[in-house]
Amino acid sequence: MTPPPRLLPLMLPQPGLAALRDAALVEGFGFVERLMRDWDSGANRFAQPGEQLVGAFEGARLLGVAGLNRDPYLRQAGVGRLRHLYVAPGARGRGVGAALVRHLLRGTAFHRLRLRTDTAAAAAFYLRLGFHAVADATATHEIHLPPAGHDARADGVAGDWR
């Protein structure tokens, strides 16, 4: 059995991120490239309170990446946005994406997280983790999180994010 990936904060430039970008572009996804461009320009460095960018590693190899920002579309206190989740094709099906999302959900001060996806596979993935679909121009899914230290099972919070 493969050991779980190590989840670590990322700072760019990050060895292996260009390879993830290239793989994402082959699949028609431009968001890893946008992540790198926004970091380089200073537009988004995941540096605001509550924000973070993490990578999943197997040894020194970067398997995947995911970020958490304040939601720029709502600009409401306590609302974050899950962004730029990408896992290398060869690492899929091993729980890497779920580990990244769970890590971000467990460590967040945000009480509500939103995201946008345009693939059925990603939509199903987020539903399994407890997100629910929303009809919104700027988000396809969201999850409401209990306060830190609260037992979510007592409130019937769905999903497998803990």
UniProtKB/TrEMBL annotation:
CDD domains: NAT_SF. Residues 5-153 form the N-acetyltransferase domain. This is GNAT family N-acetyltransferase. SUPFAM superfamilies: Acyl-CoA N-acyltransferases (Nat) (SSF55729). The keyword Ion transport does not apply. It comes from Teichococcus aerophilus. It comes from the Bacteria. Keywords: Acyltransferase, Transferase. The lineage of its organism: Bacteria, Pseudomonadati, Pseudomonadota, Alphaproteobacteria, Acetobacterales. PROSITE patterns: GNAT.
